[in-house]
UniProtKB/TrEMBL annotation:
Name recorded for this polypeptide: beta-galactosidase
Cofactor(s) it depends on: Ca(2+)
Lineage: Bacteria, Pseudomonadati, Bacteroidota, Sphingobacteriia, Sphingobacteriales
Keyword entries, A-Z: Calcium, Glycosidase, Hydrolase, Signal
GO terms of molecular function: hydrolase activity
EC main group: hydrolase
Chain ranges of the Beta-galactosidase domain: 560-628
InterPro entries in UniProt: B-gal_small/dom_5, Bact_Beta-galactosidase, Beta-gal/glucu_dom_sf, Gal_mutarotase_sf_dom, Galactose-bd-like_sf, GH, GH-type_carb-bd, Glyco_hydro_2
Positions of the Glycosyl hydrolases family 2 sugar binding domain: 57-188
Protein family per UniProt: Belongs to the glycosyl hydrolase 2 family.
Amino acid sequence: MKRPIVYICFLFGLLCLFFTSQAQEAKRLYLSGTGKDNRVNWEFYCTGGAHAGKWTSIPVPSNWELEGFGNYNYGFDKTEQVGKEEGLYKYRFPVPKKWKTQHINIVFEGVMTDAEVKVNGQLAGPIHQGAYYAFKYDISKLLHYGKENVLEVKVSKHSANESVNAAERKGDFWIFGGIFRPVWLEVLPQPHIARVSINALANGAFESLVKVNGQADRIQAQIYTLEGKAVGNVMQQSLAGDQAQIRLKGHIEKPLLWSAEFPHRYEVVFDLYDKNKLIHRVKQRFGFRTVEVKQRDGIYVNGVKMKFKGVNRHSFWPSSGRTTSKALSIEDVELMKAMNMNAVRMSHYPPDDHFLEVCDSLGLYVMDELAGWHGHYDTSTGTKLLKEMMIHDENHPSIVLWANGNEGGHNFDLDSIFLQEDRQQRPVVHPWQLFGGIETQHYREYNYGIGNYDHGKDIVMPTEFLHGMYDGGHGAGLEDYWKHMWSEPLSAGGFLWDFADQGVVRKDKKDSIDTDGNRGADGIVGPYREKEGSFYAIKEIWSPVFIERREITPAFDGVLSIENRYAFTNLNQCSFTWKLKTWSGDGVATDSVSGTITSPDIKPFEKGTLHITLPQNWRNYQVLYLTVRDPYKKELFTWSFPVQIPKEVASQLIKEEGTNKITHEERDSLLLVHIGALRLTLNKQNGQLLQVTNGKGTIPFHDGPVLQQGINNFGNFQLHQDGAKLVFASTFDKKTNYNTLEWTFFPSGLVKLFVRYFPGDYFTDYVGLNFSLPEKEMLRVTYMGRGPYRVWKNRMKGQSLGVWDKAYNTSETGEAPWLYPEFKGYHANLYWARIKTKNHSFKVITPDEDIFLRLYTPAFKEDPWKNYDLVFPSGDISFMQGISGIGTKTQKRENTGPMGMKNIFYDYEKDPTRAKELTLYFDFNEQE
């Protein structure tokens, strides 16, 4: 499939013009596209699987499975070895005659997995083995100058080197084939700068190791700000003979330091001269910063002990596999920083160059990782690939740690190579192991981990913890873990597993997204970066501005205690605003007022107070919001505080008086109550509401209350008139009827339910009252409470108090269609809810605090480990005073900390004054 002659001539002309304009700088000519959104078609032939056995075309870069070729394989798929698919690529390109005096490399940033490269029918060099590493060949002597050239690449998906397969392809992630990162020609002058290794320290010291290919007279370097201002003196050194490597040293006074909070960078320009003529120029961005491990103490960045708030990230996109883009890198880093993360681990291989560039520019600490997953490279292969990784990544200031493989995939012979190659001598860790004084334990239970902090001697930094699966993990348990991680001196923080659900678009399954069951549903965000509830929980828990809990009472003086958990930022660099808001009983916002707060002068790691000046009528509002923004005006979090507690809001909504006459009749075991057009049928023996009808028909809400994890021994009901009200109540008996229930019917049509009860055990998964409301009847719920996401006992953070409207959906976290927030589950701090069914709507109001509204039960999940473990009461709609936690992929909920344990209640031998009480008001009059 040849390129049209017109196209080749046009490209040829552009190249000649382009490369004669600035000959002293290296040029990059892409033969492929630059990422998933910019690709170039090459000729392609796949040897096995779908669409095999014929020449066609494929966009490059790409993974061929995502383009409809070959077979899809997850890391545990042993069938990958059987077919051993290969992809044959061809691409034709012109080269100008003027390049004949240049040094030309062909560069591949990533090929899965073995790559045999030919140019004009001749091998460019040895077959490259290893998928995630940039490699290059000098093809200067293989090119036809002034003519068309043919590039051929044979890619073997399964490596001929079993150590490569062990390190890269036998892991818990999708494995693909193809030229998945860009390909380009690197055009250099014959004598040129081949490598620059920089070490720039926080004290302003600058050192660079420069490798030169060919003979030249001297090299000099100048540091500039990114605005182009020269800083420091010119560094220069003469070259003697064939001297290939020199050191340049310099110093600048009081440099602006690079950190995740303030990612200040500089640019150094290296000029290579021969006979006083500039022959080559290299520009390299870098940052001044120092990384140091102090044994039995911590990991320090710029002299400050660091707490890494990190996450593991695969290079991944559903429709393109491991082929990504700079735009995606920016999106991912911004999402991480939006969760108040300051670190990311590259799991389990080096990332695209643009991801590291974005971490440099936006500010994120990086742990860069040599591939390995329970298996590792042999020493010769690993040494070669490690050097390729170092050459590609070494000057990124964001990289503060190296990882030698993962979970047993550590080749100890390579540890010394890291130190030999890295000018900065950054720490090396073995994820899952104790190495170099850093314990990187994975998925330890809460008590085990805290034991390490309290009694161990080593720095503790789990490189994977709270393994997400569906809606479990991540934010669930994090509050308990982080309390100890933050306070314990030996903790260096940790890295959650993991960032995004690994779901691929399967062309063989009607373009549906496949997560390989529960293996890929591990993310905080979905495949297309849809935000789960844990996203917001992490955002609050990891906020660098910590707000100490305070109840907003009528005596509130506007003062909040706060803590600065930044490492380098004074809180006077942040901005603070407040807002008061109130709603009507229909959920319509009726009034709001806002203002700014003077930012307090609180240094890193210090505590202080925040003073909010509120209007005199602040008590007339229902909720107070506090928003804090970082120095870049990005929201850290918005906290919400109840100004009016449920009983105050309920008093505004509850209307007991009315003109309706209340009548009743008894039919065998039934009590029928009439309030105007409203008809209620109750069971006289157990007090359950059996049916509700109004002028529009029967409301599908019935069969309750049913006490959960308690004895439904309501009995000996008595009926009596209380003025205009009718009361139907059970009688307390310490032995037989110690749980009591009372219905009160008001002339307004309002119905009150009051239950006093004792949970069935001291340790309970949940406690509360259930009712039936078939899912097929449900349309939506509008409620005042914390939302819009559901909560778990061990994931209460991240939600905001307000009014939320949720349409019924069957979304399940980590599965298609990734529509969030989910409808089903527990919702915290209920004030009132309007429940709308297909033909009716009704309202529930509670004056009680800390009530959870339960909306149905999420679907059962396949869980071979039996840790995820959804625990819900029976029935459909519940009003709970205690709910369960959620487990992770690797831990049961009770092992994620105190918040994951069961609820504890004591009945003091059925003393009525010790019973739990729950009050609900129902308005079954039609709500339009």
